[in-house]
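hey so u asked for the seq, here:
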Amino acid sequence: MAPHTSDIIGRSLNFGYLIRHDPLLAYDGASAESYIFEDPDTALFRARRFADRLSQIVAGSLQVSLPRRATLGRKIRALQEAKAISGAVLHAFERVRDTGNDAAHDRVGDAYVALRSVHDCFELGLWYHNLATGQNTGRAFVPPRTPDSPAAPVDDLRLTEIQMMLAAFGRRIVAMELRTSDDAPERAEALAAALTTAQTTLAGELSAVRRDVDKVTNRLEEGFEERLAARELAAAGRLPELESNIAEAGAIAERDYQDLDAILHRLSASAVGKTSNSPLVINQAGANSQNFVIGGIYAGKVRKLEGFAGRGDENA
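ran it, structure tokens below
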């Protein structure tokens, strides 16, 4: 991997740690996230590729037989039939598949759908990490910041829905922070400017080397089958251990989606009818930081948003 691109991808708050499992996962996940507001269809396409490659990695690790040249849908069914995936994990795979297909054929152009899909990839990556390591790690998705002038058109209502979703992600960061440390929320306000600058700088770095990232991604794609075969050999002796990790890894994913659903529902209920800015947490930065940045959203027009744990939105 090119040193400068691997450094940038490795600092991705949501996908960098997946390099240890397969660098293509980290590259596709971080790349998809970088396109959410610039080119949602590209984000959805890369999210779908993330899910496709992850399904192959999981199948290989658990010795689940896949038909040659199987579609992503067939791979998902094979994992489901092998009882490797169910519930929230199964639904996340299905949403990413469906919205990726829509983007490839119909040009979705919807940053809200892209944001949901990238979050699903984050949850799938974390699920696999817990499956592969047995660590039962909890992480909060760090939401990307909405640009002042998104490259892809976003109407006012959709923008409000996006901001509501970002606020839910932020609130979950806060909840995890309060559970795991003694830091007061006020500490985050003092660090907000520096953290936002750091995150903005990282996003700018990725955009500046996008061609290099794509070149590395293509090389990683070419070597994927070889890495997959090596991984299958290494995992052969760990099959009982990996199978024993399935239930807890899945349970963590279920809790993550349920937590986000509860937060989103509370935010939606409190926002309806309001016409002034509400202080909502919408951002975080720092590779290992649990600090957050305070932002605000206009909450005058909020329709009922579909929960994170559902089987998708109208585009799925």
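The longest strand covers residues 277-284. DSSP finds eleven helices and two strands in the chain.
lmk if thats what u needed
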